[in-house]
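ok so i was messing around last nite and threw this chain in just to see what happens. nothing serious, just curious
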Amino acid sequence: MINKTLLGLSLGALMFTAGSAVAADYKIDKEGQHAFIEFRIKHLGYSWLYGSFNDFDGSFTFDDKNPAADKVNVVINTNSVDTNHAERDKHLRGKSFLNVAKFPQATFESTEVKKNGDGYSVIGNLTLNGVTKPVTLESKLTGQGNDPWGGYRAGFEANGNKKELWLL
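result:
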């Protein structure tokens, strides 16, 4: 039997772009490798397998002064799973894992955001393989400010609990 334990999911260095205000609606900036969705899986009990989803989109409403108004929505193309090994990726896309033919997308939609010390707890529903379950992503603001092109950007990292995230 194949070990299906997902040990981490990171929305690493997510960059969101908005207008000129911090309290705003943002869009995930996928251009130029500014956003990542990464994971690691325990492999055969003695090593780690790292991977990512290369095709995703999403949006985020962020107001540091009013986290209750914050929202996060992400859609992942499950066919874009990439572990840098073609045969393994084919297996991950198959029926015993992601079953991309039947479930081409995974989604995360927040239901609540709470300030948590220096970070935020982003609570929401993750749908994977047609199953929706509540998950909590621990997030932190990694930086924000005006960019050289006249826009405003904010960077975030988010990590999820292994037991909540792997729904297969």
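not much to say yet. The domain at 6-165 is CATH 2.40.128.110 (Lipocalin).
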